[in-house]
Amino acid sequence: MFIAMNRFRVAPGSEAAFETLWRSRDSHLQGVPGFVEFHLLKGPAREDHVLYASHSVWRSRADFEAWTRSEAFRMAHRHAGTTRPLYLGPPEFEGFESVQTLVQQAAG
Questions:
Q1: Domain range summary for the chain, segments of one domain joined by +
Q2: Residue 60, CB half-sphere, CA atoms under 13 Å: how many?
Q3: Distance between CA 34 and CA 100 in Å, rounded?
Q4: Per the UniProt record, which residue ranges are transmembrane (predicted)?
């Protein structure tokens, strides 16, 4: 499993617009080989920003990297530069390989 995250420092007062932008966009992820799930996470508020993270789970790093070279990726990010006023600086990418996974056991 591979987890791809981008951290965004959203300007105070821009949280609703940032969330609306993410909720209303077409991610083009459905049907992409290796895509498992996506989450938009809201973190702590600081004096100058509110922390958000986009968090996508992939079957493998290779699947994620293939997506970044795909037409679906280009379509999902075609308006990426137009949201700068909502957040401070560029997003910060972090990629993680899973080394352990625990799942809830079914009650039996």
A1: 2-97
A2: 4
A3: 19
A4: none
Let me know the angle formed at the C-alpha of 54 by 51 and 59, rounded to the nearest 5 degrees: 145
Domain spanning 2-97: CATH 3.90.550.10: no
Three-state DSSP class for residue 27: coil
pTM of the complete model: 0.83
With beta carbons less than 8 A apart as the criterion, state whether 47 and 10 touch.
no
Please, are residues 9 and 49 in contact by the beta-carbon 8 Å criterion? Answer: yes
Do residues 63 and 1 lie in contact, with contact meaning Cβ atoms separated by under 8 Å?
no
